[in-house]
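If I may wish for something, please sit down with the protein I am sending here and say whether tokens and residues agree:
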Amino acid sequence: MAATSRSSVRQPLEAAASLDAMQASPAVQDVIHALRQLFEPGRVETTADHPMGSVQHTVRLHHRASGARVTGHESTRQRAIARAYLALVNELLDSMPELDAVVSRSWGIDPPHPILPDAHNYGLAELKLDLIPADGSEPYADMVLVRPGRRVRLRFASPRELSIDEGGPTELGMEIVDAAVHRLEGLTVRVDNYEQGSGALRFVARSVEIVEDCRCGSG
């Protein structure tokens, strides 16, 4: 496994120092502390040399949990700090794909659903919820996701636990993950948003299928 470049993490880590001096929320402070341990000079030369432990676990899970905690109940200042720091976490993980893969595999992070594994690269253009379809079929939620050159409509069967954070729904940062491993009453797919500080759309569903797929324009 290739060595991790210290230059790839130095700039975000230095930026974290200034954020740490501000009034960040406890969740963000936890992320800062974990990252400083992980990238302490001389601590690790390659991700292969670093045993899996609480530091990576904290980084990954707080990265996600922090996003869920950043709601309208926090001050605008706190939300701005949290969004900025979560962006730094994303940058660090993106610069170390091998670490991200190891963390996900070791700690049971739900994998992207194969129906649209790069859903985060799309924007949410339409959301439709039909709880009592005229044809007597089961309830469903339709989402139209778009990116340049493609427009796809996904249908989620029997959506449950639908929530939209204050300020939403946001159109960016959508993730569709395979939740079948949890065996939750037949629910196999989960929609979430790990990037946005506010306005995230979340729900679980029995299944998902593509009902329209247009590759003839930007949508």
About this structure: The radius of gyration is 19 Å. The longest strand covers residues 123-130.
